[in-house]
Amino acid sequence: MKNILIYIAASFILASCSNLEKTIELDLEQAEQVIVIDGLITNELRKQRIVVGQNVDFYTTGETPRLSGAAVSVTDDAGNTFQFEEDPDNEGVYLSEFQGIEGRTYSMKVEVKGGIYEATETLNPVSPIDSLGWEVDFDEVENETDLDTAYVYDVLIYTKEPQDTKDYYLFKFYENGVIQNDDGRDIFYADDEYIGENIDGITGGYYHKKEDSVTVEMYSMARSGFLFYQDMDLNLNNDGGLFGPIPANLRNNISNGALGLFQVSSVSRESIIIGVE
Amino acid sequence: MLRTLIQVIIFLGLTNIAFSQDKHTISGYLKDVNNAEELIGATIFIKEIKNGVVTNPYGFYSITLPPGDYTISFSYIGYQTQSTNINLSEDISINMELQEESTELLEVVVTAEEEDHYVKDLSIGRSEINIKEVKQLPALFGEPDIIKAVQMQPGVLTAGEGTSAFFVRGGSSDQNLILLDEAPVYDPSHFFGLFSVFNADVIKSSDLYRGGIPVQYGGRLSSMLDVRTKDGNAKQLGGSASIGSLASKIMLEGPIAKEKSSFMISGRRSYIDVMAKLFNEDIPVYYYDLNAKVNWKPNNKDRFFVSAYLGRDVLRFDGGGIDWGNKTTTFRWNHLFSERMFSNLTVAYSDFDYGLNIDDPLEGLDWTANMQELTLKNDVSYFLNPKNELSFGFQVTGRRFSPGKITPTGSRSIFKTIELEKMYAMDYAAYIGNTQRLSEKLSLQYGLRFAMFQHIGPGTVRYYEDPQDNLDPQITSIKYHKKYKPIKTYANLEPRFLARYTLDEQSSLKASYQRMFQYVHLIANSTVPIPFNTWAPSSEYLRPQRADQVALGYFRNFKSNEYEFSGEIYYKDMLDVTDFADNAQVFFNENLSTEYRQGESDSYGLEISLRKNEGKLTGFLSYTFSKTERRVPDVNDSQVFLANYDRRNAFNIAATYQLTDRKSIGGTFTYTTGRPITIPTGRYEYGDGFNLDYYSGRNGYKMVDFHRLDLSYNIEGKKNDLRKFKTSQSISIYNVYNRRNPFTVYSRTKQDKEGEIIGDGTEKELRQVSLFPILMSYSFQIRF
Question: Torsion angle, CA of A170/A176/A178/A179, rounded to 10 degrees?
């Protein structure tokens, strides 16, 4: 939301010259190797998951390496310790089954390749999604049959934004069980700085077609999470720093220079079948 | 220090007054004979004393001499020199009108004494932007633009084509004081910088000061661009109209009371939106400008000027729109207290605002922000004697910053009304200076400016546990300050010094030192500011920026002033330059002060300039070697990095060649080293298939070099005194050899033309964006 002005400015200029773009190859220096941690603890009883990996050089292709053999644990402020075990089927993925409790503070500790990486975050509540709805965006409809076959349906979200707390949100959209994020280019995050209490049918991020099953997840986050996704948005959608900020690494809550985020969230989730009354 | 200086000046003044009792003053105004426009910076040369003075920005001059016979010559570049013999036995007033040299004359008349102003002038780092020359040079979309000419001057760098931002001697683009009839213009750009707000048809003069900034001015670290509009023809009704590829403009000027009062009014509007409609396209983007000026010169003693500017950009898009613009108004009163004391009182108002509007039942909002300032200032020149010219004055400015207000549109909107607190500031300055001709060879200009800046109430100050913690700002206390109560005060002295030593008739050496302070800061963390960037006053957590600059220059004219050469070197040391933390959020951030990072910046450079003013071929060549580094805590891990606009070499040529009386060609060529850019060195995966960039440092790479050739062909209509209308046409070709110059470089996951990811989505690529291919444009102008 806050960056809308930059995007408008940049897209205005850049759109006018899209045919004046080309791919260039630069002789880049080697990137120093940095640990990447992707941790998520939620208030749902599930196998909580922490992924440990590292970065690669810019032009290196293929999945980035995951790191095996790390010691991963999470403790909470009620004195519980959760040891994470590496998933035998997934190298570098560490799992531990428990349920996060609202209001508790969780501390992660990852020991890998001789380094110790720590993060601490509190599990904030999230208000429930009251309901989902759908509507046809008639601007997208070209003919009658589009209503049955085309991506012309918006999903509508109804919820309340508590005005007495400072809240940060992450949204995820699934269509027929598959996450929608434009191949890793879209992120839906928000703070409540200028949001009023009533969210009466705000549209989701994507168009759907009739009979799609759409699921919306709303995550609470700490401020560190909000900043992380905001920075990620700049990282993925930068213009090189001409009209937007000079690109930089994402800020996060993990010590010792590791990349990634230790996210601690409450989740509310709703599903709807599009086009069904 | 101030007291000592004043004492010295008073002493100098008194000694001179003691000896000057039997002296008399010659004073008056220099004007153009055709339209009575005053000539700024024209030379009045007294043969007998081999010395002279120049007219001030209002065309006024004054010189005091012992009684005797004198030969006085009045000269101005592009005008025929006039001489007159006088017997000075009492104070006299000579208002001289000069005739513009026509092109035909240039070829036959060898003027005895050409201008040698840059050699003799007490100025360094100054470039006059010749508006006539700008109009003959190639223009992007047929729209002559002085900012584009400014960007070609030595010591000036750009971030690329198509922007109105310019960077002077290592300073950032918000460190330029851009004055339109003495009112500051906060955003000089239209269409996100493609054009500037300055309509070439209304400009009388524009001077860029890269150094040697006169003591009358302060408030910005790096440069001053002093743009003054035409007063309007006081002799007869006239005007011009022109049609360009992108915009059209019309200007009317004429006497209200002959030679006593005149007006000028002008309007300009772009019309791609109108053109698009003809082709059933919808491109709802436009800008417009209005300039108006009235003056009244009831007598030689009093002159009044009122000028106003209003400009706006409007861009509509699907579901909303944005708009922004400047408004300025200036009232000026020139008063002669005596033949030797010239005073100018200015009241200037300036306003910049922007708005964003989203039309949607749920996400509908209006977002507005603005800043306003009102200035009262008085500048007095006291022409003590031919050796000393005192200047003194004061300035008071009040400012209001409204960083942002969001209002929901419609009752279902998810937004609530929220406004960032307004900030107020007062700014006081007083100065005294002297221009002293110590000997025929050595002249000095020195002065001291005292400036005080106050962030005042009403206002709430948040005090932070760690003012630099933007991750999790912890407010320790909040204090409300009442209306007009000073919240934070900064006071500083700004010494200025300039010396010129004449080596011989053709050459001189100059040296200067200046200290500048800047109290307002542009809130932008991009390389080029966008119109939605707001400004903030110096305050609890934002210190004033400071710059010390020394410069040395060698000036030489060749072939009886046909060629002007200058070489200057400078070193500039800046303290507390305003920068922002990595990934800073500069829009609508109530804890904005936690994003401020202030550091130091060093810049040095060599600037070479060669001008040819006479003959069929005229123009200039400039070369700049410079380096600018910054060190800002928390930015780039507190390590030194190259400024975003650092370019080692910049070379420009601008020339026009008069083919015949009526036809001319113009050309410009630009070469600059590529701009530094921040490029990822690595990548990593995170979460739901996000493929992120990893950066090793800021501005570690540079884009490929930039070079471009532009050409223009200008035809004047047939010259015939019987005709009431004069026409001219101009064809410009921009980027003649169609080079894909780099505008910016960004990274993305590899994708095809339709935006579909290629491969498994792990492959990344760097994309270089260019702005303009070869472009042709045409403009037609009619003058009457």
Answer: -20
